[in-house]
Amino acid sequence: MTIEITVALEYSFEQSTDIMLQIEAAAIPEQYLERAHIDVGNVEHFARTAGHDMIGDRLWLRTSGLLRVDYTARVRVERILTDIGTLPMLRPANLPGEAVQYLLDSTYCPATEFQYFVQAEFGHLEGGARVAAMRDWIAEKFTYVAGSSGPQTTALDSFVMRRGVCRDYTHVLVSLCRASTIPARFVSVYAPGVEPQDFHAVAEVFLGGEWHLVDATGMAKEGEMAKVGVGRDAADVSFLTAYGPCAMLSQSVDVRTIGSDAR
Amino acid sequence: MTIEITVALEYSFEQSTDIMLQIEAAAIPEQYLERAHIDVGNVEHFARTAGHDMIGDRLWLRTSGLLRVDYTARVRVERILTDIGTLPMLRPANLPGEAVQYLLDSTYCPATEFQYFVQAEFGHLEGGARVAAMRDWIAEKFTYVAGSSGPQTTALDSFVMRRGVCRDYTHVLVSLCRASTIPARFVSVYAPGVEPQDFHAVAEVFLGGEWHLVDATGMAKEGEMAKVGVGRDAADVSFLTAYGPCAMLSQSVDVRTIGSDAR
Amino acid sequence: MTIEITVALEYSFEQSTDIMLQIEAAAIPEQYLERAHIDVGNVEHFARTAGHDMIGDRLWLRTSGLLRVDYTARVRVERILTDIGTLPMLRPANLPGEAVQYLLDSTYCPATEFQYFVQAEFGHLEGGARVAAMRDWIAEKFTYVAGSSGPQTTALDSFVMRRGVCRDYTHVLVSLCRASTIPARFVSVYAPGVEPQDFHAVAEVFLGGEWHLVDATGMAKEGEMAKVGVGRDAADVSFLTAYGPCAMLSQSVDVRTIGSDAR
Amino acid sequence: MTIEITVALEYSFEQSTDIMLQIEAAAIPEQYLERAHIDVGNVEHFARTAGHDMIGDRLWLRTSGLLRVDYTARVRVERILTDIGTLPMLRPANLPGEAVQYLLDSTYCPATEFQYFVQAEFGHLEGGARVAAMRDWIAEKFTYVAGSSGPQTTALDSFVMRRGVCRDYTHVLVSLCRASTIPARFVSVYAPGVEPQDFHAVAEVFLGGEWHLVDATGMAKEGEMAKVGVGRDAADVSFLTAYGPCAMLSQSVDVRTIGSDAR
């Protein structure tokens, strides 16, 4: 499976501003970057640092006025998928230390509040079977509505509203998993088939000693996504974070599967 | 400077529950554990994992009914202090990747919302001078009132209320620093002189390429604290996190400086 | 049904502070005050104003130092109860103007967010039948746990946590009703049988052109409650509101049914 | 002063939905409706009820598909203005009962949290002098930025962000007044000079026994506004409230002063 990604962003900044971008497909074993190119124009500073958990890169820029970012990449995804429904969970006591942060509450995932709900509704299931049931429950109960949430919307809001976009589906699933003592993180990805085309977000759960992608929206296939970065929730993998006032002028994301000859 | 720590906790759990404790002074170069002992009684599981950023340990237990935890330690603190007011900040583009998480919003520190405030009030200062001014501003404007905040209180609430306890002072200072593109994290510590005696919390800011402790409450001296753990905010270094219903029965913390012969 | 109420409150105030009390059983047709006495000691000011929707009174005091309030009353309740399950709702267009405020969002009842949930789960029911089903759903799913919520807890939190005390049950039921375009308000009451004994809170819904009490906790009988006041949520009928720092020293509430000879 | 108002709204509704509109200039003594016309097209129901505090009207409609609302009015405003800076406040004990609701916390105005701030910064001022100082403080510290807030933004957020639109300025001023035991309500108005042209919102404070308009944004003159309705905050006077999913298609508001011959 090979996917082709084309992204164009235009933002404007009132004053000289520090900006963090995280929009490049990560160079990690499960996905091979056949080619990738990013152009940010003339900026004052430019630097590259490792993303959260060392997955993907964050770019730091400093600029004022108009910022135009063009990114294109071709990524061959070779992810081995497992049926998560059969995977065991590790007891918290057996988790590696670096997974523990993904059990804790974060900005958009106040997981502690969901402990009784998961116990009441999914307490008879364990590990991957529980994750699969929670994913299916969200998919059944929720409706995907573009524009129905905003940057302050948390998993609490989404759980009540039963509407949202990919970030909201993911925040709810992540919260339900953490409330079940199953580590879960937020993954920003590129995926074909997302309607309308945009940056996409899915969950990743730690089962059987490894991380596994889960898309509660059902819009994308876990084997066809290119990961950009991971974090505790959307706050960690925002595609653009500005340390000052900014205005979005335009933004386009195009992701497509390319022909079988390219596989 | 040597400090002696004595902690006793009693909690009760309705059912068999996974519990994470983070109450031990960390074994790190700047503080030497002359002795330390923890007793958690008979529990089903017991495991030790590394804390956030590999500082300190988290203990995982599983138990039901009464949990009694006794912890005692003697810690020799040999921290080299610097006048933070003179320290330069690194441009975000020059930060090490692992410090970037400490620029981002977290549960109790919605730092983005503070960008205009810091620019308006402290925009004429840079780096350590700005951190010192923000620390002094908090110390001047805020009143320490035991019981004036709760587990849902965020830096927004505290900023408006101008009252709080150590966690609240720290959340506000951390938020102001992050809004200034200065990485800041939350540190749980033991410190003599805290009134009433309790777990204490302070900020740590990344200036001149290193982390520096800052206590906005002014209750404790940065050179006399024993660090327990670090995190993005209080959610990461809670001394006890339970994955199920629990009730606190009693809790005592005693921290004292021991005689000059021990220094 | 006659009930006897005995309340004692002790609070302390750092400085001269305006205080609003709302703890007296209301003098309204459905309940007759056989006797009532309130003693607030020596205070600077004392005045009585009508409560929200002209139900009950609010007392304004101004004092500093210790405030001791003693209230006793004997109330004969003669409320005519109806089976709400059979009552029709009025279309919003037919509501009296003064009921409309009880359709709108309020501090603890962000009802708008619940619109999709009520439509999905209770959309097949109308009016009183829907209210009864929602009350039963809360009674089945929620667990009453003293101390499980705090003053910042909203209906969103409670809906997710499925735990709470009377105020939380009421906030959730009120929110679900408003999201169904059924006006619903918060009523503070005295009721025998509440465990632990305390101020109690229930919902009141507007069906068939009249207000009807509904206790989602099931702890008290709608025919045996003495109303104190009504409002949009708990913020409107707090038994004590202080415009300055205060500390609660003690508080006791005793409500009991008195013998058949008194009926 | 005579103003001419022209409003056009287009919304679409997936299903038959109850809708409340509050967009008409109120018929009250201080403003005379020379003419007014509203057209909502063919709808299933249509009814008119009194607004909050009996000021203005709320219209209830029920419709599905496209809703197009056209409203035009000519309003002669004859409001007697007073310099609020010299007005005394009433002690809470002397307030009329119906003003007390405007001292309490509401959805967007968590006034209690601001008590210490107003005491610290404005405690040396009383009544109208304090209101004027708080209005000027907001005007000095805040920047009006269209699009900088959203429907979930509260006075806490705005106070920290120091940016917002008219609703945010008003929520902050209302909160500061309530925290000072000065009743304050939210007023939706039409006003010439608002840039960009839109529905406008200002505060109204209860001083000297009467309500007085205060525009913290400084964009409009208190003597040139036509009031639409009042409430505890924006939640009470939303120009359109829908009890079901809806999408805004277009919206235009035009308010202008008409020639001296019309005065």
Give the tags:
homotetramer; 263 residues; alpha+beta; Immunoglobulin-like; C8orf32 fold; 6-stranded antiparallel beta sheet; 4-stranded antiparallel beta sheet
Structure write-up:
- The structure is a homotetramer of 263-residue chains.
- Chain A is an alpha+beta fold.
- Chain A has two domains: 2-78 and 240-257, Immunoglobulin-like (Sandwich); 84-233, C8orf32 fold (Roll).
- Chain A contains four helices and twelve strands.
- The first copy, chain A, has helices at residues 115-122, 127-141, 155-161, 166-179; strands at residues 2-21, 31-39, 45-50, 57-77, 143-144, 163-164, 184-190, 200-207, 210-214, 226-231, 240-242, 246-257.
- In chain A, the strands form three sheets. In chain A, strands 1, 2, 3, 4, 11 and 12 form a six-stranded antiparallel sheet that branches.
- In chain A, helix 2 (127-141) runs antiparallel to helix 4 and helix 3 crosses helix 4.
- The model of chain A has no long low-confidence stretch (mean pLDDT 94).
- Chains in contact: A-B, A-C, A-D, B-C, B-D, C-D.
- At the A-B interface, strand 3, strand 4 and helix 1 of A face strand 3, strand 4 and helix 1 of B.
